[in-house]
Write a structure and sequence with these properties.
Layout lengths: L2 H13 L11 E10 L2 E15 L7 E8 L2 E8 L5 E8 L1 E2 L19 E2 L12
Antiparallel strand pairs: 1-2, 1-5, 2-3, 3-4, 6-7
């Protein structure tokens, strides 16, 4: 392992975050800490993960898309953000692409993603 990968692995270990195994096409629920004035609460943001960037590293991020009141809303989350309380995989999607940007133009039935029923977690990761 080279020096940069070693330092990045140490940083991830020091953060102590439990990131589940998910990819583009999965429906995920992100518990995001919202601060309003002096009060802080956790707000769930549930939608389809349409992309992952920079892998599992410290600089990694993912984009979640949901339909809210008939309008498409996308949000980009840093993977190791301190404001993320939890990430839960709701459904596993069967897709053939890494980036699902085509969902932006689709509505209704054409925007559906088939569910994976025979999912096997990667070795070393439990989901």
């Amino acid at each position: 392992m080279d020096l940069i990968a070693t330092l990045e692995a140490e940083q991830i270990a020091s953060l102590g975050k439990d990131i589940p195994d998910f990819k583009a096409g999965d429906t995920i629920r992100v518990g995001y800490k919202v601060t309003e004035g002096t009060r802080s609460r956790v707000q769930n943001y549930e939608g389809v993960c349409i992309s992952r960037k920079n892998g599992d590293g410290v600089a990694g991020s993912f984009t979640v898309r949901k339909i809210s009141f008939g309008e498409g809303v996308e949000r980009i989350f840093p993977l190791y953000s301190t404001n993320i309380e939890s990430i839960t995989v709701v459904r596993r999607g069967r897709v053939r692409r890494a980036k699902l940007y085509y969902l932006r133009e689709r509505r209704g039935k054409s925007a559906r993603i088939a569910e994976v029923t025979n999912y096997k977690p990667k070795s070393g990761a439990e989901a």
